[in-house]
């Protein structure tokens, strides 16, 4: 009897193994305790964290290169402009943008799905415009098509990349407008920037369009791009193309004190280190002190080694020159000769200060610049003044009446002098936000004048681009080499001038 029982048990085990062995390997690899479906809201959150430029990461390399800071100790880096390759990390983010649209579509045709798809268009424009500004031509029309068998994407010309970005943004505005007319209260989940507020996303969409159009200022006479008309269409029709109008509209990363993973990046241990190693740059400080700008009192901590001057409250705010030999900067720092970040302001608690990615003040300056250039009718002086007021307001500062009547502050008109004022104030407002935008605006216009010295290297030149990643030469060699040949005659260096700047 026992022998018969054992035979039956062996048969049952064999049958179980047979049926288990017929299961697909993909099924066996699934973790039954983890969802294999990505929700749109979680995808959106991840995408937003990817697109967020942390101004404090890597000890703010982008902002050292924009001359907001000077690093005084060579163990942690230097002031050299001998940078190398740019990055293609955003292509990973773009894969998640594709997945966001796919997962949103699974929810059916409704306004929430349409909202996610409109935001996805913004994300694409954001990612591709950032990468092309950094390097030049990039893959776009063939990118993200590995599922269709395209593993080696060709490079699109920079002009075509910008045209596509502007088209995505125009389409996104149209979609959001249609949704808003049906139900203004509709929202999306997973949005860490605007908490799902679609009206604010619409303002961000059109404000990014203005940024891109201003970025293309050297191509203002290109009939195909039609920059002037595009700009005027947005500025002259705020009902159809709303843009940011106050600091509540800023696209920014807001930190908090409860979730340690989203504390202010310098809080608590990194703060003192950062302040001690990074005195403020003279390029930025000198603008504020020369204009008697009260923002410096909130943002900066005066130099401990400079005596008070009762007749000049700005006297203790001195910046380090980016081009100075690093050992000299370190020595002067040790003597307390430079201003630094105000710990009382930036490190007041774990929530710190929000990091802006796209701001209302920049939008005001972009509008003022476009009007100054004759792209649209309007009051450039009003937009210029509003940009300063809103940037000051972000820091809780109200400028004194004496500030506004200074000849170098009062708008000089729609001429070269007025344009210089707009660009200077835009640079000031970019302090510790918006990634490389301060550098890109300098690269485009030459304003303000950057400090150049022996520490900057690169034969006394400020670079104008990043080279392509070495991984691209390994994985997509023929296409990147063709792009380099067509743009720069085979060269791929930081000093090669891209189409955007010609």
From TrEMBL:
Chain ranges passing through the membrane: none
InterPro entries: SusD-like_2, TPR-like_helical_dom_sf
Identification of the protein by name: SusD-like starch-binding protein associating with outer membrane
Annotated source species: Chitinophaga niastensis
Organismal lineage: Bacteria, Pseudomonadati, Bacteroidota, Chitinophagia, Chitinophagales
